[in-house]
Amino acid sequence: xxxxxxxxxxxxxxxxxxxxxxxxxxxxxxxxxxxxxxxxxxxxxxxxxxxxxxxxxxxxxxxxxxxxxxxxxxxxxxxxxxxxxxxxxxxxxxxxxxxxxxxxxxxxxxxxxxxxxxxxxxxxxxxxxxxxxxxxxxxxxxxxxxxxxxxxxxxxxxxxxxxxxxxxxxxxxxxxxxxxxxxxxxxxxxxxxxxxxxxxxxxxxxxxxxxxxxxxxxxxxxxxxxxxxxxxxxxxxxxxxxxxxxxxxxxxxxxxxxxxxxxxxxxxxxxxxxxxxxxxxxxxxxxxxxxxxxxxxxxxxxxxxxxxxxxxxxxxxxxxxxxxxxxxxxxxxxxxxxxxxxxxxxxxxxxxxxxxxxxxxxxxxxxxxxxxxxxxxxxxxxx
Length: 383
Hints:
- The protein is an all-alpha fold.
- 67% of the residues lie in helices and 1% in strands.
- A two-stranded antiparallel ribbon has the order 1-2.
- The chain starts with 16 loop residues before the first helix and ends in a 7-residue tail after the last helix.
- It is a multi-pass membrane protein.
């Protein structure tokens, strides 16, 4: 039985809050498992950094995989989301069943969730199993299989060797889409985690302490909201380069203000509940109250806001890549669309196919976010 389970059926006056505060190092089973998982990931990262030779692949069996710094960050993000999103839902199956019952009322959202699941598999596993797209100038402008076109004045027919065709440099378009899916997931999820971390911390701390702490944090939030974030992002990328890590960091750091205000508003209502007063009167520490009571009680707001911000980050990164300010060393859907815009008349598949996938990805996340908000917000319960 975990540390949280042994207190589940006790009332506040039956819990020794001084013992709870003094036992702050006592960890739940989920936290221990999370620490072990991150320890293993950290050990693998150190192995890649200090043992594997420079420019050599991290893994050579059963497949060759050169793990990049962004890949390590993405894996750490997935661990955080798994232990703090998936595991709590599994542990509270009754509430999860209720959420799913409400969620599946939106048929478009269910289909979108399936699309996102497939996208995760393709974007997560595809770049590991497939080799990176290579340039073959003898195979430029090949149309998708079954199609015939004459982009350079010579009639060519698509083959199964390149089922979705090739671009202006002879790169396989299917591989470009798969590698671009990984980048979109990295941008959306890592940027979302950074944004949620800042927004949740600022919002809950401001609501809990109130007074001058609330005033200082909210006034800074107001000041940051006055800056045009996308223009500032363009300036930073132009001045310091458009590495993917920097773009993601800027997305998260410059986009948390609305989340912080939303969470603060929700937390102010929860702050007046009786169990907060009881926790304080029985000696629970401020950190324990925020971590154990305030953050979990605004988690539905955090989750729904997070799902709605992911498509914005994906679309923003594609926009930067389209105008040439993205990371030139990674394959992005926006970058592929930009490479095909000059040949829309003769080779429309180059820009159209990644554009279609980008459209459906953003649309799917929006549908899922809307349905998650309706399912988790009791005020939206139908009569």
